[in-house]
Amino acid sequence: MKDINDRTRDLGPFEPKPGDDMVVCRCEEVTQGQIRQAVHDGLFTVAEVRRYLRCGMGLCQGQTCARLVKGIMARELGVSPDELEPASSRAPMRPIEMSVFAKEGGRDGE
Amino acid sequence: MESNVTKGTTADVPSRTADAIVVGAGIIGCATAYYLAKKGTSVIVLDACDVIGNGGSTRNGGGVRQSGRDPRELPLAMYAVKNMWPHLSDELGADVEYCQGGNLRLGKTERHIKILEGLRDKAVAQGLDMRMITGDEVRQINPYLSDEVIGASWCPTDGHANPLKATYAYYMAARRLGVRFYTGMPVTELRKVHGRVRKVVCPEATFEADSVIVCAGYASRKILASVGIDVPMSNVLIEALVTEMEPQMFPQMLGTADADFYGHQTKHGSFVFGGDSGLEDVNKDNGHDANSSITAPAICRGILRYIPKLANAKIVRTWGGYEDVCIDGVPVLGPVDEVPGLVVGCAFTGHGFGISPIVGTLLAEVARGEKTTLDLSAFRYDRFHARA
Questions:
Q1: Which of B8, B165, B320, B333 is the most buried (most CB within 10 A)?
Q2: What percent of chain B has pLDDT over 90?
Q3: Which residue out of A2, A4, A6 would a mutagenesis test of the B interface target, given it has the greatest number of B Cβ atoms within 10 Å?
Q4: Mind telling me how many Å the CA of B387 is from chain A's nearest CA?
């Protein structure tokens, strides 16, 4: 059984550390301390932390912070970063206005 | 040791028996586990996926809606809105972003208004405050809606919440109460011992409990088949999108008579909308397993006809998910007579999120052999019959 799948694992009490105030996800202003706390609360996958804290959910969609979040989580979990699957990348590649997106695939002139 | 740590596979399953096993760690499974643990029942939760809540629970539109529900399901929604959602954040110790902003179901044609009146009549018959309002009244409630809207149904006690927050809030609260969660643990079959359900078999380990609650979405069907029970449902793709953060514009949940889109603005400021292209049933996989680039633009076209002000709002993300759609449109909930100890909660048909607090409560009551808070007889697993 993979370590991240045993949610009964006791990671020990959450202890504040220097750098907890550092903003890791700039789009959604999520700090290192919030990410570490979420791992201690049982969120062991990148997808869970992203969905709960919104890190990687802003305008850049995690293109800046994804690796940092993974590294912080891996340290907290005591696993290699390679063990953590990245969150799914989703279309569109860049934010796109609704009025522009709406022209795709419809009838001509709409 | 060091090499084992880098593989990340050091752990054996530390504990394999409990009073109850919940199969499926979506919001229904997490809520059921939470309410069981709160009453002192020891619980193990198993999920096939590595990620908690990776099915519909974290992919839905967040509606906490009573209007438009099937009359069988409406009492559950009304109970949850009256007694559970208002203080769920306090109960779970995390903000689930519940907002009771009302629900506007919009109409643009006389045919739409007829559909909405039909929904209103059914809801009013069961005591829900739901009324028809004119286009002008609609725009007094929400000034951003276009002049094409000629009327709507209005249910002031409906609302929305954040399904991501709510799912993980239930998970974390259950975990704090000692519930043992194992992910990446697909259940392949259930086995009876002395006539009662007892063993839950996974490739890596076999678990045992006095009662087993199966709430694994569409995957429930195969699991239940191992003890001879079938729930007639299909796995239906649905897609959604979210915008960047916008200034707060309106608190209502929106839907349409034509069901071309639905959605709301979140506490964060982004707008979440769901909908379809109309071609899903006949896509290249005949309605299965194919996400499509044509859907999100179709949802955008729907939205802009109702809310033209959003023309410049940027879409940052789109995603798909699956609904476990029941053949008669309401879920299967409750005990299974032929398999004592087995409890089912599946086939939510795309509207499970809003009723998840009360469903979790009811499934926990059933598993513990208690009298249920609400009658579940309309949701029985054996209500389906072939043509006579």
A1: B333
A2: 88
A3: A6
A4: 40
Per the CB < 8 Å rule, is B294 touching A91? no
Q: What's the CATH superfamily of A3-101? A: BFD-like [2Fe-2S]-binding domain (1.10.10.1100)
Residues of A in contact with B17 (CB under 8 A): none
pLDDT at B1: 37
B316 at interface of A, judged by CB pairs closer than 8 A = yes
Tell me which chain B residues have a C-beta less than 8 angstroms from the C-beta of A103. Answer: 297
Q: Is A99 on the interface with B (CB under 8 A)?
A: yes
- The per-residue pLDDT for range B146-160, each reduced to its tens digit, is 999 999 999 999 999
Q: Does A45 touch chain B (CB under 8 A)?
A: yes
Q: Examine the pLDDT at A105 and tell me if it is beyond 80.
A: no
The ipTM value here is: 0.96
Do the first three CATH levels of B17-59+165-232+328-379 and B103-156+234-326 match, i.e. the same topology?
A: no
Q: Report the sign of the C-alpha dihedral through residues B358, B360, B365, B367, in that order.
A: positive
Predicted local distance difference test score (pLDDT) of residue B352: 97
- Architecture of the CATH domain B103-156+234-326: 2-Layer Sandwich (3.30)
- Tens digits of residue pLDDT in A52-66: 999 999 989 999 999
* Contact: A5, B315; criterion CB under 8 Å: no
The matching CATH number, chosen from 3.90.1640.30, 3.40.50.170, 3.40.1280.10, 3.50.50.60, for B17-59+165-232+328-379 is 3.50.50.60
Q: Provide the shortest C-alpha distance from residue A20 to chain B (in Å).
A: 20
What is the model's pTM?
0.96
* Position A95 pLDDT exceeds 70: yes
Inform me whether the pLDDT recorded for B166 exceeds 60: yes
